[in-house]
Amino acid sequence: MLPLFAHITLPLEDPILKFLLILVIILAAPLLLNKLKIPYLLGLIIAGAVIGPHGLNLVLRDSSIILSGTAGLLYIMFLSGLELDMSDFRKNSWRSLVFGLYTFCIPLLFGILAGHYLLGFPIYSSILLAGLFASQTLIAYPIVSKLGITRDKSVTISVGGTVITDTLALLLLTVIVGMATGNVDEHFWYRLSGSVAACIAVIVLLFPPLAHWFFKRCSDNVAQYVFVLVMVFLGAYLAHLAGLEPIIGAFLAGLALNRLIPRTSALMNRIDFVGNAIFIPFFLIGVGMLIDYRAFFRDWESIEVAAVMIVLVTSAKYAAAYLTQKTFRLSRDQRTMIFGLSSAHVAATLAAVMVGYNVVLGQTPDGEPIRLLDESVLNGTILMILATCTISTFAAQRGAHNIAAKGEQADPESEGTGEHVLIPISRAESIGELVGLSIAVTKQKYRSLYALKAIDNNIDDPDVQKRAHKLLDQAVTAAAAANIHLHRLLRYDVNAVNAIVSVVRERNITDLVLGMHRDDDAPTLTVPGMLGAGSPSPLGKLIPAVIAQCNVTTFVYRAAQPLPTVRRHLVIVPRKAELEAGFQTWVLRIRHLAHDTGAKLIFHATEQTVEQLRRKRRRADIASYVVHPPEESWDELPATLLGQVRPDDCVWIVMSRRDRISYQAAMSRVPGYLEEQLPENSFVLVFPEQAGKTDNRYL
């Protein structure tokens, strides 16, 4: 066996072996460390130290590792912006600002005093050392994301505060280096402020319409993911050009694309998967490769500086988290979470220390360079990275687990109220949008999706069954892309209506999602009150028959554009809709969709209905309301819609069965009007859940 490995030299140069070794580490670290109750993030950092140039020297920290690690760091910041709850972020923006100032000013004060009086550094070096203390890295964010608590208030505050303190720390770095080298002139401040403002304006104002245009016109999965990567790195490079750290640009790119990539979408699942499987682990392993354990034994000065840095920066970050908890009356677990997310120092810290180390102010009489930050600070920073990453991962894991456990106990939904959604399918082109709507309106924890394809039991054609299986496979694939399991149902029955009604009863279906498309070859269906006797139904033949026999909440969806590209959801509610049995259910469904996609939600209803809509919310109200007089007839609905609907709006019409209290005769004309007058807009007809029998209750 020895001759087989004789050609292998250390460090490894074969790219296949290098990549294989790193993949084995990424695979094995979580499996082994989970049993030891050690955060896997810390395990990857330690593994990087072991295989790196200062350990066993198996892999060098070359350009490939640096490239992948840089992508991983940008990915972390991009995800933190992408997964933010924008409504909570806007509501907590001032809290993030306060925390950002706490976590910048307190370490800055500690660092200046320690550098100047304890370590004897010059004032510029002391201020730059303080800037190292103030910066922070969201290295523990993957733990939070994995546990699904990214929308907790403490996480929102921490992420916003991180951007603020890193921005201030890196601006401080730019100013101090300029002053130390004599490059600050009267035009310096204008150049700096102008470039920063231009960068932020380009990312925040131009990225969203560009992404909206692309996602609306391109449905290719690979192209959409590559486009997202382009936006991340473009934002990072623009920030770099403006004199900011690239992580700020990546975070702003995440905020810019936040509304266009819902957290339950297939694209979001791909972004999470690739980042957590490849890019982020490469970054953590690359961080570990920086750690030089020999710095512990090299000289006492490095150990002294490292000890001062670790103790003071940890104390300062804990003080900032403690003050934030007391200021906003947060829980202890939220304080632990804030401390865990804000205590790690990697990205901006490394950038600052390397810049300071490379700035040479002069020479000693012996010819040695006088650096803005000397080698003892460089070695101390490496040790501080190891210590703060360890503290950060343990603290964040503890806080995240406790918050997640309490969140499950406090969940207002009960496990007995599962959401079972049935999606009858017949046309391949509408399957993706129907599955997307079903995912968006329901809660993941209690969601069960079923796709049904019905076949006439009088048909004995193998090709029909093959086509049915192909449609079901397409539905399963669409759900799996969003990491959602979908049950496939193939049913032989006397007709499609009977198949749907039977499955609704057998599977305890709570929600029915139907695609709206007129069957051109279907016979004329005479439905009382709909467009006059003998007129063809705009809903086709199947939908009115299903509604007549099913009393579950039913959504009839006509998709004109991808759901994430919808900017506003206009919900037209009839008078007395609050008195219907299924009122609360459809309200929660629509609110959940708006909260998930980040689109604006506007209810058009009477004053009494608006009052009930406001009461039915379970979180901060993200909707706005337009009050209509109760005497207004739905005969005037066309004029109302024409005045309100814009491009990229989705119109929701809350309907009612014929003998129910909110029913109006003009409802029968709504489907035809929407098809004729709003051909470029998506719309949804909502038939609320009804109590009692369904016999003879046609639209």
Strand tally is 12
Distance between the termini: 79 Å
Which percent range describes the beta-strand content? Answer: 5-15%
Gyration radius (Cα, Å) is 30 Å
Report helical residue fraction: 55-70%
What is the general shape? elongated
Q: How can the largest sheet be summarized? A: 10 strands, mixed
Low-confidence stretches: 410-416, 518-535, 695-699
Strand line-up of the largest beta sheet: 5-4-3-6-7-12-11-8-9-10
The count of helical stretches stands at: 25
| Helix-and-strand structural type | alpha/beta
pLDDT average, as an integer?
83
Please characterize this protein's 3D structure.
This protein is α/β, with parallel strands linked by helices and 699 residues long. The chain is 57% helix and 10% strand. The chain contains 25 helices and twelve strands. The strands form two sheets. It has a ten-stranded mixed β-sheet with strand order 5-4-3-6-7-12-11-8-9-10, with helices on both faces. Helix 5 (93-118) runs antiparallel to helix 6. The longest helix has 35 residues, at 375-409. The protein is elongated. 48% of the residues are buried. The model is unreliable at 410-416, 518-535 and 695-699 (pLDDT under 50).
